[in-house]
């Protein structure tokens, strides 16, 4: 393996931005990759993959270093050694002792929270809430996530897109359980393709693709996506509605709705209107929707494969606070559903306290009003999808 100093320096810089300035890993990597247009695909892959993997394995690497504040270049060297790569003969690596690193790693493997590189409190919460399933889920959450596309059926179909991407050297496999999903066989930058620029697909994990179909939307319905963000699931709903009917996408953050509108244009979506949530927005929409999606803000513990830095950023207090927000949204926003209509409550969390328990509390506190129709979970350990939860609730006529 040949190392280029400038690439290793880019990784060291990125780690400093993430761990010292608390910046989001994907934003830092995006900025670093933009800083040098001459880097090729392999160089970019080297920077991005190593930075993400070091962030993912941070606690394990710190343990193996046996130092309180090791230099980021030492952490890089430890990571390469654990991967079985020989280090270059650079002076900054003179003091690195591969044999000692391998011994410390043997010790690390005996302690779950170190081996799986997770904060103490999170290991405790996971074990408490998931019991014997925690080991497998935690392990699966540390694997690199596949890149999955959702075919935009407003513009193309799965076979045609698969063929078009293959002509660009991008090989994919259809996922049998999801009619619009294609998984890449190896990581490639799909955003450069004509197919992406023309809105033929979106990048969307398989677990996330299970949610919109749960609403059972029909063309012509009136549908509200109440926590729409930048619209991953709004676009999917629009495609399932065949662009017919009315789809209101709402959020409390205007910049996300701006991004949603941009994506909707690329996707050829014409039945979406965006609405910033203000004091009376929900009240005004009382009993107006055939379907309401509540894809509520959550811990993101089901998508740690993609965002490994969030395990170092979220705190127990945040979990308590977000649970309250989720319940407030569920109990308040559910009033937008018409009698006979349907509500889907969804999270990208593996924790029952953000998911099943919230729905149970809602059913109990709302009395006889609602019935739980279906409850589904996707699992990194069981099906290789990100960890999503979705419950479909019907309001009686
Ligand atoms: C899980 S994300 C949504 C992801 C989005 N549905 C998608 O598929 O791309 C949750 C969203 O809820 C929004 N949010 C936070 N508090 C909210 C509130 N009180 N009402 C509505 N949306 C809220 C956040 O801004 C965020 O965009």
Automatic annotation (TrEMBL):
Keyword tRNA processing: no
Key words of the record: Methyltransferase, RNA-binding, S-adenosyl-L-methionine, Transferase
Enzyme class at the top of the EC tree: transferase
GO function term, MF aspect, one: RNA methyltransferase activity
PROSITE patterns per the UniProt record, alphabetical: SAM_MT_RSMB_NOP
Residue ranges occupied by any SAM-dependent MTase RsmB/NOP-type domain in the UniProt entry: 137-397
GO BP, sorted A to Z: RNA methylation
Positions that bind S-adenosyl-L-methionine: 251, 295
Family annotation (Gene3D superfamilies): Vaccinia Virus protein VP39
InterPro entries in the record: MeTrfase_RsmB-F_NOP2_cat, MeTrfase_RsmB-F_NOP2_dom, RCMT, RsmB-like_ferredoxin, SAM-dependent_MTases_sf
EC number in record: 2.1.1.176
Family annotation (CDD domains): AdoMet_MTases
Superkingdom in the source lineage: Bacteria
Positions of the catalytic residues: 348
Keyword RNA-binding attached: yes
Record PANTHER family: NOP2 YEAST -RELATED NOL1/NOP2/FMU SUN DOMAIN-CONTAINING, RIBOSOMAL RNA SMALL SUBUNIT METHYLTRANSFERASE B-RELATED
Family of the protein in this entry: Belongs to the class I-like SAM-binding methyltransferase superfamily. RsmB/NOP family.
Record's protein name: 16S rRNA (Cytosine967-C5)-methyltransferase
């Amino acid at each position: 393996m040949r190392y280029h100093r400038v690439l290793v320096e880019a990784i060291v810089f990125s780690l400093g931005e993430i761990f010292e300035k608390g910046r989001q890993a994907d934003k830092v990597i995006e900025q670093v990759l933009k800083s040098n247009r001459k880097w090729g695909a392999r160089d970019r892959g080297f920077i991005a993959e190593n930075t993400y993997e070091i962030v993912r394995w941070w606690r394990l690497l710190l343990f193996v270093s046996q130092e309180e504040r090791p230099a980021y270049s030492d952490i890089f060297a430890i990571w390469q050694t654990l991967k079985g790569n020989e280090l270059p003969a650079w002076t900054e690596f003179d003091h690195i002792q591969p044999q000692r690193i391998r011994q410390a790693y043997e010790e690390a493997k005996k302690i779950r929270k170190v081996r799986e590189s997770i904060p103490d409190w999170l290991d405790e919460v996971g074990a408490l809430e998931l019991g014997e399933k925690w080991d497998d889920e935690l392990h699966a959450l540390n694997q690199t996530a596949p890149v999955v596309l959702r075919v935009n059926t407003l513009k193309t179909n799965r076979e045609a897109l698969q063929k078009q991407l293959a002509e660009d050297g991008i090989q994919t496999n259809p996922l049998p359980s999801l009619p619009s999903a294609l998984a890449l066989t190896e990581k490639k930058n799909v955003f450069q393709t004509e197919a992406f620029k023309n809105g033929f697909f979106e990048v969307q994990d398989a677990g996330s693709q299970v949610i919109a179909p749960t609403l059972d939307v029909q063309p012509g319905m009136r549908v509200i996506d109440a926590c729409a963000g930048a619209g991953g699931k709004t676009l999917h709903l629009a495609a399932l509605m065949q662009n017919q009917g009315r789809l209101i996408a709402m959020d409390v953050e205007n910049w996300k709705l701006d991004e949603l509108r941009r994506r909707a244009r690329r996707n050829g979506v014409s039945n979406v209107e965006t609405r910033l949530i203000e004091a009376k927005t929900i009240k005004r929409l009382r009993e107006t929707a055939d379907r309401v999606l509540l894809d509520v803000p959550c811990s993101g513990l089901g998508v740690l494969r993609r965002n490994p830095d969030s395990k170092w950023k979220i705190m127990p207090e945040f979990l308590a606070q977000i649970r309250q927000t989720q319940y407030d949204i569920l109990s308040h926003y559910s009033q937008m559903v018409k009698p006979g209509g349907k509500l889907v409550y969804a999270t990208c969390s593996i924790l029952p306290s953000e998911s099943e328990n919230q729905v149970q509390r809602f059913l109990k506190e709302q009395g006889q009003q609602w019935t739980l129709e279906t409850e589904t979970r996707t699992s990194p350990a069981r099906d290789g999808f990100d960890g999503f939860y979705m419950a479909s609730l019907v309001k009686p006529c």
